[in-house]
Design goal:
Length: about 350
């Protein structure tokens, strides 16, 4: 019966296995032969590699889910249909509304009325997705529920599993900083710097770096960062000239406003790089960053237009995610808002 079909958006999480078991048991108790639809939204925003690593991982996860359902149903596997799909590959999935649009389109196309969400489902990685996603799906007329599964207790240990990449990155950065501060390349400084960097790296390599460091990609990022530095310096020079013109102009043509937008960067280091780059550029000041939500004060119309044009954001994405990520829409195209527009919505 189509009314008993269930749509389950999936992403790898600590409660995914339990969520799959829950929906399998629920389908087995239903009348007729319901179908479980497991879909993995994959955005071009994430899949920036030439090989399509994110899409490949999605297919592998969906294959595992099919095996899990078969294990959970046992002899009753034939009484439940299972459909899997990778969706959203041609879309730009940036916020809960984008994910909801893809899921609603799939549900309507397959006649599914019920969505079960994994309580730890969060493909955006940083900002909480579930509450707004539930609201978007319910407003589209779907029945939405969270899988009633037990969540693992979250702990944040001081030390983490770390590989050679973390050690190498910490050693090189510490060594370079030591030599920069010393100001010479004498044999003594080279030797003591290497010893100091080695000690620091041995003690802190499991603490300082989050996530796996891929040495194969690090060289490319450093090369792209070397291109980014002169670009940023040029943007600073241009902004200085614009602000100097404003300050020296008899009418002082300023138009201070605050701009809010969700930056298309997806981890702490790129977000920090973008926030600092904005602040270093005269005429704009990063006031607040919450996850990926940026609040920026702009002094003039020109500085605001340059910010929303997204040149700095594209450059930062180029550094951390490669050339394909630089083609993502600008903040203006994604609907960035000034404080006047925000107040108008709230009025």
């Amino acid at each position: 019966m189509a009314g008993d079909d269930i749509l389950v958006p999936v992403d790898d999480s600590v409660t995914l296995r339990k969520t799959v078991a829950y929906v399998a048991e629920r389908a087995a108790d239903a009348d007729g032969r319901p179908t479980l639809h497991f879909v993995y939204p994959v955005s071009e925003r994430i899949d920036t590699s030439e090989e399509g690593a994110e899409a490949t991982g999605a297919v592998e996860l969906l294959d595992r889910i099919e095996v899990w359902v078969e294990e959970d149903l046992g002899d009753g596997a034939d009484s439940v249909g299972v459909e899997t799909a990778v969706v959203g590959q041609t879309e730009y999935l940036f916020n809960p509304g984008d994910y909801a649009d893809v899921l609603v389109e799939y549900a309507r196309r397959h006649g599914v009325e019920t969505v079960v969400l994994d309580p730890e489902y969060n493909p955006l990685g940083m900002a909480p997705l579930l509450p707004p996603l539930e609201g978007e799906l319910e407003s589209a007329g779907l029945t939405v529920e969270l899988a009633p599964v037990e969540r693992a207790t979250r702990r944040s240990p001081l030390t983490r599993t770390a590989g050679l990449g973390q050690f190498v990155v910490l050693f090189c950065s510490t060594y370079a900083f030591y030599l920069l501060v010393s100001g010479t390349l004498s044999a003594f400084d080279l030797a003591t710097g290497a010893i100091s960097a080695g000690v620091v790296s041995a003690v802190l390599w499991r603490i300082t770096t989050r996530g796996e460091v891929e040495l194969s990609k690090l060289g490319g990022r450093l090369a792209r960062f070397a291109l980014y530095v002169p670009f940023l310096l040029w943007e600073i020079v241009k902004a200085n000239i614009d602000i100097a013109y404003v300050v020296l102009h008899p009418r002082l043509p300023i138009d201070p406003k605050t701009v809010e937008f969700d930056a298309a960067v997806w981890s702490a280091l790129p977000a920090t790089t973008l926030a600092n780059s904005i602040t270093l550029t005269p005429g704009t000041l990063t006031v607040d960053v919450t996850q990926r939500h940026f609040t920026v004060h702009s002094l003039t119309v020109g500085s605001r237009e340059d910010l929303l044009d997204g040149a700095l954001e594209r450059a930062v994405r180029f550094v951390f995610y490669g050339r394909r990520a630089a083609r993502i829409a600008s903040p203006a195209e994604r609907g960035a808002r000034t404080d006047d527009e925000t107040e108008g919505e709230n009025a």
